[in-house]
Amino acid sequence: MHRRPRLVAPGAALAALLTGCSATPDAAAPGSGEHAGHHGGHDGHHGGHDNGAGPLVHRFERAEDWVAEFEGPERDAWQKPAEVVAAMRIAPGMRVADLGAGTGYFLPHLSRAVGPTGAVVGLDIERDMVRYMTERASRERLANVTARQVGPADPGLDPGSVDRILVVNTWHHIPDRPAYAAKLRAALRPDGAVVVVDFTDTARHGPPKEHRIAPEAVAAELRAGGLSPEVVAEDLPDQYIVVGRRADAGAAR
Ligand SMILES: C[S@@+](CC[C@H](N)C(=O)[O-])C[C@H]1O[C@@H](n2cnc3c(N)ncnc32)[C@H](O)[C@@H]1O
């Protein structure tokens, strides 16, 4: 995890691929008139601004509406799930939570990383995402994977219960992030870490720029929640990774 920090992703001149959040700022959400009407897709008509006023408010009510976007075959090329999971420094037997897991894109990767003695839980505010993840775990025989619905301001994890918490393309949706970070910290085991992956300001996809959070700002929010943050080096073309360790921990390095 302790590689050379790189604060800005290289190579902004990448093909405009579909995003883990939304392809374009103006795109209507797939399939849902409610999405399109209330939110203009992920990014069109939301309220609040991360660069000043609050989280990106957007709903992902119907899982099947998002499968093509979240699970498209082209995503692996820019999401680089193996690299993300490597940055998490997961050991067999660990307990890992995927916060804002959506359709569960990361679940098979996390399942493999923790192995049969470990456990992975996908958390999401959307009941239908939880339904989809549960069915997916069964369909893909991910015996160590479960899914659970959580409230928007609480990860619903027991104190000291998990080794890693992955937050991909979701941190910018979280309200009152310093307070939320403190809740994540409480859920970590002593050597645990939160791993936030989100879009750089130069990314060709993702939320509109006013909702992108700089990695230094994520680090500050994690620090405010009692975590010890580090922007880690990676080769993701559109995203950064910030790792927040329990400040009293000596491991997860
Ligand atoms: C852009 S999707 C990312 C899904 C997944 N992490 C991925 O990379 O494919 C954001 C997800 O976060 C969920 N979400 C939004 N706010 C949340 C919150 N406060 N707590 C938990 N999940 C949340 C949404 O319902 C949605 O499924």
TrEMBL record:
SUPFAM superfamilies: S-adenosyl-L-methionine-dependent methyltransferases (SSF53335). Residues 1-27 form the signal peptide. InterPro entries: Methyltranfer_dom, SAM-dependent_MTases_sf. Keywords: Signal. Residues 26-55 are annotated as: Disordered. Residues 92-200 form the Methyltransferase domain. CDD domains: AdoMet_MTases. PANTHER family: TRANS-ACONITATE 2-METHYLTRANSFERASE, TRANS-ACONITATE 2-METHYLTRANSFERASE-RELATED. This is Methyltransferase domain-containing protein. It comes from Sorangium cellulosum. The lineage of its organism: Bacteria, Pseudomonadati, Myxococcota, Polyangia, Polyangiales.
